[in-house]
Amino acid sequence: MSRVYNFSAGPSMLPESVLNLAAAEMLDYKGSGQSVMEMSHRSKIYEEIIFGAQALMREVMNVPDNYKILFMQGGASGQFAAVPLNLLNGSGKADYALSGQFSTKAYKEAQKYGDVKAVCSSKEQNFSCIPEVDPAQLTPDADYFHFCHNNTIYGTRWTKIPETGNVPLVADISSSFLSQPMDISKFGVLYGGAQKNVAPAGLTVVIVREDLIGNAHPTTPAVLDYKNMADNDSMYNTPPCYSIYMCKLVLEWVKKMGGLEAMKQRNEQKAKILYDFIDSSNMFSNPVKHSDRSVMNVTFVTESDELNAKFVKEAAEAGFVNLKGHRSVGGMRASIYNAMPIEGVEKLVEFMKSFEEKNS
Ligand SMILES: *Cc1c(COP(=O)(O)O)cnc(C)c1O
């Protein structure tokens, strides 16, 4: 068997030890004689999995007691609607920071539900940097302020959390979930699709402060209503059972690896190896503002589309797959989430070096 180095932005690599454990438990989960895929979500044995996953996430992410962890569906995109439906209940106003495609989608979705304002944007810079937040532009009585913590497509990230006073911060953390410690108490809501760094696709995790729960708009679909999901322990309807099981295994792996502080160090180390090489290269460059560089998604380009295409093709043949940049930006992108080993990045750099030698 040979496995490739998979630099996909999502769904993406999972730790090999997690896949091996899942494989070993596939036909007979802990003596139950069934696969986790087949068991009732109302069974005792499954409850241990879902409640275990929630408890472990609370522990690993250091989630305070006054926050609920909800396992939902519909992806981060579903939350683009769920957030305004649940939170736009005071002034009916919200502020959005536009730092890329996903935050712009979130903003557009929220416009269906209330008086929503884009208070800063880096669109003019092709989202190659994080926009400045000017406090004078913020809506003092906004129900929340929304931003996307790591911009998966453009390869940028917020290095400091915006200051919004009493206005609750809502963050899309789809592509930075579990990648570094975060002070959860600074946020009203954190949400993300699991398929980047937490589990296979299908699971959406929402971490929400309790006082923000319970005032959803009356038209909110039951499956998007935080109160309904919290009251029913995320099992109002059938949850994405297998993804939740995989999430639990990934969290066990993160804990064993030393937790989020260890993840952060490892991720920064990987990103440094790649950025250092790109910065020293005459062929490859990284098109984003250096101080805003993402640790998870490293974008790079050569001087031409032809050379980019050649690189992506030859890299895939050499076992480095999914390096093509997002269709809206072109170039290359190496997503180096938690599960990417350091040696995967080192080998990619070796490959890039030899490509540069042969093609210049
Ligand atoms: C992938 C991604 C999304 C979209 O997630 P879905 O689960 O496919 O809806 C949204 N935001 C960010 C930051 C992402 O990386």
Descriptive notes:
It contains 9 helices and 13 strands. The mean pLDDT is 97. Strand 3 (93-98), helix 4 (101-110) and strand 4 form a beta-alpha-beta unit. The chain has 360 residues and is of the alpha/beta class. The protein starts with a strand and ends with a helix. Bound molecules: pyridoxal-5'-phosphate. Residues 10, 75-77, 102, 148, 152, 172, 174-175, 193, 196 line the site of pyridoxal-5'-phosphate. Pyridoxal-5'-phosphate (PLP) binds next to helix 3.
In short:
The chain is α/β, with parallel strands linked by helices. It folds into two domains: 17-256, Type I PLP-dependent aspartate aminotransferase-like (Major domain) (Aspartate Aminotransferase, domain 2); 259-359, Aspartate Aminotransferase, domain 1, CATH 3.90.1150.10.
- Topology-level CATH name of the largest domain: Aspartate Aminotransferase, domain 2
Indicate how many domains the architecture comprises: 2
Low-confidence stretches: none
Rounded mean pLDDT score: 97
**How many alpha or pi helices?**
9
Which small-molecule species are bound to the chains here?
pyridoxal-5'-phosphate
The CATH H-level homologous superfamily of the largest domain:
Type I PLP-dependent aspartate aminotransferase-like (Major domain)
Terminal-residue CA separation: 35 Å
**Order of strands, widest sheet:** 2-10-9-8-5-3-4
What would you call the structural class?
alpha/beta
- Strand portion: 15-25%
Q: How is the quaternary structure best described? A: single chain
What is the number of beta strands? 13
CATH class of the largest domain: Alpha Beta
Radius of gyration: 21 Å
* CATH second-level architecture of the largest domain: 3-Layer(aba) Sandwich
